[in-house]
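Q: Got a minute? One more chain.
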Amino acid sequence: MVDPAAPEKPLLLSALREVLHAHLAALAAMIGASRDEATSAESRPENKYDTRALEASYLAAGQGERLAELKQLVGWIDDVGDAVGPVVRLGSFVQVDDGGREAWLFLAPQGGHTIATPVGDVQLVGTGSPLGRALLGAEAGDIPTFDTPSGERELEILEVL
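A: Always. Here it is, folded:
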């Protein structure tokens, strides 16, 4: 049963999109700065042991990979629909009770981000993670269990949007 006081999914999706697009722009700017550093005349090696340019190029390459992953995630989130269902699936917002602490999760192809939204922080959970796999197919009232490095944990699902 959907709580009438629960936030609306379109509002939450809009907040996620806004923040992720801002992250994307900031990361693109950082990559530009890293590339400039790697190719600047000041980064030329002063001797055979000077690795500043090499280190800067490694940083730019790593940031480039992260940018590609983030672009893929943003593209996917831009296409997520507003449908709300009783079963947790890719694109669902899930409110959980984690031992007396309520939290919002968003099931995505990849996780690792925590985004500030009107309902508070929403953690993106990848479907490949133990938590993501445990949530898939669950419904409000279910208590899925999943493995963590410190042992088995469980969460109660309060709401699915």
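A: The longest helix spans residues 9-39.
Q: Perfect, thanks.
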